[in-house]
Amino acid sequence: MKIAVAMSGGVDSSAAAAILKEQGHDLVGFSMQLWNQRRGISVDENGNPLPSRCCSIDDVYDARRVAEELGFPFYVLNLEREFERNVVQPFVVSYLNGETPIPCVSCNSRLKFASLDALAASLGCEKVATGHYARVEFDQLAQRYRLFRGRNLQKDQSYFLWELTQDQLARSMFPLGEMSKPEVREVAREHQLAVAEKAESQEICFVPDGNYAGFIDRYLEAEDARDRLPGQGQIVDARGDIVGQHTGIHRYTIGQRRGIGIANERPLYVLSIDAQKNRIVVGGQDELLSREFTAAGVHWIAYDSPVTPVRANVRVRYRHHEAPATITPLENGRAHVVFDEPQRAITPGQATVFYREDEVTGGGWIVKRGQEQ
């Protein structure tokens, strides 16, 4: 069949393309130019562009080279404007609101897959393939597509795909879903691809040094909007007693211990961030535990939106080991989630994903720790 292949310039998407080409499919490769690393925002303290291993100009060159090596046409989509509007700006606003966002989920579903879907359809492509470690299957009995973890649980990326619609899943292909990372690299070596030994990207593509607060400072300065930056404020304990001063709420996240700047007889952690009062609440590690939270923008994959409580294993961040919980649907696409046992550092802004064994049944966005008011 004719397949559109999303190519990041990394080993995963390149190996996926090699596998599909070897299977005899007719491929068209696409890279997405999302963020201008040399814009003057993603720079170090000396003004030099920060090195990036994802979505950079160099990655586009690598993707083009792989397409040439494998012998199929390649195109570049300039989505910089859409990426800034739909991913970067919400990321900044979320931090200023006292949240800790994860932009890769919305980038996948609302930008990358949506853009590739439209382009693939215009070119007569039947499927859109990516290098994600995940699996999609069609359930004949239920007449719907189902999303599963990748077989390699250490590389599984199903967490980032819970917003995909049935139409998007119907056109999705994940050639690496059954494979391990060493197996993927071996495919790249066998096809003598130039990216076979390329290092992996670990950070958000537009913040390659992992300094989110620094990026927000530079972004708002570039936008002539430094007045939006939160200034100094109070750090208080759970009783409301002032114990210190912070330098801006966007420099903190729930569960953080290092860098709070308070000497105390016991380790202190960030418990919550109050953007309206411009203050940070700190306390002991035991105070980070919570059994419940509210999610918004809930999307169900395995079945239509339920009207009664659902049992699932729930993950509250990418590196969290999911735990049993009861999900009670609420109005307006919200849900109340109660864990069987308390979980650490449930954080507004993060994605929560619901699992039934290896299947992703749905997910949502954490908006409030504790009970719905």
Explain what the structure shows:
By secondary structure, the chain is of the alpha/beta class. It has three domains: about 1-190, 3-Layer(aba) Sandwich (Rossmann fold); about 230-285, Adenine nucleotide alpha hydrolases-like domains (SH3 type barrels, Roll); about 290-370, Translation factors (Elongation Factor Tu (Ef-tu), domain 3, Beta Barrel). The protein contains seven helices and 17 strands. It has helices at about 10-20, 55-70, 80-95, 105-120, 165-170, 180-190, 210-220; strands at about 1-5, 25-35, 75-80, 125-130, 135-140, 145-150, 170-175, 235, 240-245, 270-275, 280-285, 290-300, 310-315, 325-330, 335-345, 350-355, 360-370. The strands form three sheets. A six-stranded antiparallel barrel has the order 12-15-14-13-16-17. The chain has a five-stranded parallel β-sheet with strand order 3-2-1-4-7, sandwiched between helices. The protein is globular.
